[in-house]
Amino acid sequence: MHSFGYRANALLTFAVTALAFICAIASFSDKFSNQNPSVEIQILNINRFKKQSHGNDEVSLTLDIAADLESLFTWNTKQVFVFVAAEYETPKNSLNQVSLWDAIIPAKEHAKFRIQVSNKYRFIDQGHNLRGKDFNLTLHWHVMPKTGKMFADKIVMSGYSLPDAYR
Amino acid sequence: MDWQGQKLAEQLMQILLLIAAIVAFVVGYVTASFRTMMLIYAGGVVLTTLVTVPNWPFFNRNPLQWLDPSEAEKHPKPQVVVVVSSKKKSSNKK
Q1: Are residues A64 and A102 in the same domain?
Q2: Among A29, A63, A79, B67, fewest CB within 10 Å belongs to which?
Q3: Best residue in B25, B55, B56 to probe A by mutation, most A CBs within 10 Å?
């Protein structure tokens, strides 16, 4: 019974088991990396602020995003997805999250960046509650490891507000 | 492949793969390169396959010693003694 095929099969089984183990350890080793990402977002300009014909408020703004996400990258990180969301409360919804900008960071070399962009996705309220509204800008990130569990975290920055009148 | 060879092949396979896995992990972790880890491990698996899967001559160093035919004839097989129970047979006929 100790044939060529038997030995090849036993080897393959053992090799894949060992591979699963080293991948698990690689994933576990991520826990020991200390992550201290930082981000700073400024609103450079409110380009447009109006009420749409069907009654929803729409804002167009220019953001200055400076972020250092290098510490999110370990040897087991495939890529990091980041997005900036405007978060605010209205009488209708206890939490509104509107994604304004996102990006996929493929490598550590690109994880420290500063860009000035107008919102990539339209900032439209569900209603017309945006005049003079205070809101948070939150940087969310999802770390996609090569092996192991994907995880997400965020930094909330408060103290942003919209003008009191349409323009 | 003889019995000793089979044991050797099995042990070699496990030891080589474990060494490959440990070396791959350590090197990968130190150089912070997942790709290096995978390449080293793949190399280790290929090497282990080449060493332990084919029936190399060194797995056949302890061939089984069969008895010579003449030796076998001197010690004949014990004859199977068939004990027929007459009682049972008669009961069956009824």
Answers
A1: yes
A2: B67
A3: B25
